Amino acid sequence: MAARWIDPERIESAIAALAGHGAHGETGVARLVYSPEWVAAQDQVAAWMAEAGLRVERDAVGNIWAYLDGRDREAAMVVTGSHVDSQNPGGRFDGALGVIAGIMALSELRERFGQPERTLAAVSLVEEEASRFPTANFWGSRAIIGRIAAEEPKRLRGYDGVTMAEAMRDAGLDAARIPEAKREDIGTFVELHIEQGPFLERENFPVGVVEAITGYRQYLVTLEGAANHAGTTPMDMRRDPMAGAAEIIGGVVDTAHRMGRPCVTTVGRVNVSPNERAVIPRQVAFTVDARSPLPEQRETLLARHEALIQEVAERRDLRLSLRVDSDRGPVRCDPETVAVIAAAAEAAGVPAMTMTSGAVHDAMQMAEIARIAMIFVRSRSGISHSPDEFTAAEDAAAGIEVLARALHTLAYRP
Ligand code: GLV
Ligand code: MN
Ligand code: MN
């Protein structure tokens, strides 16, 4: 096999350097948006962009852009990138690999081919994970597409109690200027990302070409009953939100299981109050994350979940609040860009399979204003959103070469 365009060792050391900002244990990362660790990671990214000979710009929300300017300055840009914020804690590769890939791909293209016809940009986006602000929902890419409502910076509050506007100020940014981050000059957005699932490994492909991204809805379910003594309150006299939560949690997970692939439902966060051994709690709040890439299956799944939640709350005489925190239908990738990526994989001699993304991505937001596509790179054991996340540098190098070749096709043709 011919040598890859990008040396795997360089990728490995970039991943390790970025993981030093917000390191969590041996292999994890906890890098929440606008935290000092996140600021340091973005500064590192900006430094790499400048070293690669790219023109660097920071926008009003904190996205960092690196441009390889094209000859035709009127033509819409071809953009690649991802995010450097992480789950709390997450792994070293989710988002970070896509940011590193974008810089390395542009740097390589500049050295091999010089100036493109259309401007190429690599972007390090602000906040994809919602790990600090549960309803931020792609803050950076939403700013780019102009979908952040004026009151959001003051309304959104993180798990730490800090508002988005305050967090931005801590990172040296002014929330009042968010509208300036909006863009209308992006023609195509290609995001490279780790697969975060088991299929590439199982089918023995280093790289995946994404054809569609799952749809999802995330709820916060709050059940309120009556707190009371665990020993003296007869079972038939209780309004126990824990019993209701247990029934709903078991029910929604079971519903997704029975409906079968590709739909999935997860309850990942539970808050109990009071949280005591001998007290029937007053309130239980939990998240429900439900997904399917099939529009009709998603609708059925959501309707069943909502019906169950209502029914259990009513029957158990619990006060229910059902808040929708995120909601997005499935997104199809642009077929022409998908074909360009498939051809790039072939030209690079990289075996690639087409697939669907079960994770949600910034590319979904970009789809509102641009043609989008994604390149996946194999994840070890399909593990992600965990410090155990791992992708081999050789697979990453294969994916980045596919990205660079695809960007070449998209940006260097007159
Ligand atoms: C993205 O991080 C997701 O939750 O799919
Ligand atoms: Mn990600
Ligand atoms: Mn993620």
Write the layout of secondary structure elements.
Blueprint: H1 8-19, E1 23-24, E2 28-29, H2 36-51, E3 55-58, E4 64-68, E5 77-83, H3 96-113, E6 120-125, H4 139-144, H5 152-155, H6 164-170, E7 186-194, H7 199-203, E8 207-213, E9 215-224, E10 228-229, H8 241-259, E11 264-266, E12 270-273, E13 279-280, E14 283-292, H9 295-315, E15 319-328, E16 331-332, H10 335-348, E17 352-357, H11 362-366, E18 371-377, H12 393-412
Parallel strand pairs: 5-6, 5-7, 7-18, 8-17
Antiparallel strand pairs: 1-2, 3-4, 4-6, 8-16, 8-18, 9-14, 9-15, 10-13, 11-14, 12-14
Helix pairs in contact: 1-3, 1-12, 3-12, 8-9, 10-12
This protein binds glyoxylic acid (GLV) and manganese (II) ion (MN) (2 copies).
One manganese (II) ion is lined by residues 83, 94-95, 128, 193.
Hetero groups in this structure are: glyoxylic acid, manganese (II) ion
Please, how many helices? 12
CATH homologous superfamily title of the largest domain: Zn peptidases
Architecture per CATH nomenclature, i.e. the level-2 architecture of the largest domain: 3-Layer(aba) Sandwich
Percentage of residues in DSSP E strands:
15-25%
Radius of gyration, in Å, reads 23 Å
Oligomer: single chain
Helix content: 25-40%
User: Helices and strands: which structural class?
Assistant: alpha+beta
Q: State mean pLDDT (0 to 100 scale).
A: 98
Q: How many discrete structural domains?
A: 2
